[in-house]
Amino acid sequence: xxxxxxxxxxxxxxxxxxxxxxxxxxxxxxxxxxxxxxxxxxxxxxxxxxxxxxxxxxxxxxxxxxxxxxxxxxxxxxxxxxxxxxxxxxxxxxxxxxxxxxxxxxxxxxxxxxxxxxxxxxxxxxxxxxxxxxxxxxxxxxxxxxxxxxxxxxxxxxxxxxxxxxxxxxxxxxxxxxxxxxxxxxxxxxxxxxxxxxxxxxxxxxxxxxxxxxxxxxxxxxxxxxxxxxxxxxxxxxxxxxxxxxxxxxxxxxxxxxxxxxxxxxxxxxxxxxxxxxxxxxxxxxxxxxxxxxxxxxxxxxxxxxxxxxxxxxxxxxxxxxxxxxxxxxxxxxxxxxxxxxxxxxxxxxxxxxxxxxxxxxxxx
Length: 365
Description:
The protein has helices spanning 3-8, 22-36, 47-60, 71-86, 98-102, 106-109, 127-131, 156-169, 180-187, 191-195, 221-233, 242-249, 252-273, 299-313, 338-342, 345-364, and strands at residues 12-13, 64-68, 90-93, 114-117, 139-143, 172-177, 200-204, 215-219, 280-282, 290-295, 315-316, 321-323, 330-335.
């Protein structure tokens, strides 16, 4: 049985949002299109997509926004243009940045820009570390929250200081805002407050929103227009964006409205997890509705435990497990979404007890 089949057989799933079937998704999209009299865009021209772009731009406090088919295309293009404007090919990136870890060297192999790693791999970079770079930077990219380090964010005062430094030095400040919605909930501040001071922002239409895919790039009208032309050059000019925009737009407001509740649930989870000594959490306190749970067992054993509990109790604990820095240790990511919101406290604690007990057997042995 595959992981997907095993998860599908579970009546209790802890991480993430409920995953509707394609039939359920397409039926909901069709009903929404019918109710809102949606017609297809043609190469990005159409009332639905352009009104949605304006809505998100207004929400985040930018002049303009434009759809792009992938976040990978969105971000390297934005940073390429920023560097061209500033006359420097250097972009400072955190070592855990998506561009460095998951995009197979596209920024370098396709000639977009040159990357400098900034800061410690296990925490957000600081203003002091940024100021210590002797090079003239074209851009700085900052991920909020930083997924690969458990959803950590800089302290608000540190973030504001980084914004001010980039503005004073004429450095383009770009946000990898794939999970910006979650960061705003963690800061307890409006989205436009978090986005203020950034020259450009990328947001995902599927990660926290639950759409089919796609992204938006936000910035000044002139910057966004240049990016839109480059998306065409790079093969992103698909004839109909309608499915991606509908899938995001039909649930956008509800997803944003639920995030404060997801954050409160995350805070509740932290309080409960403190009672399970084999679980070590990163970050130490909740900064968004996501976290990493570190365990004193190998990745392979962690997956065995997950699968055994799924088979015996119909409980799905987590999706992926990763090797940790320490030998015979591993960690998993939890995104606290509507699955966790819908579960009774007692059910969550039952799952945690089963998981911790299985871990304890291995440690005792």
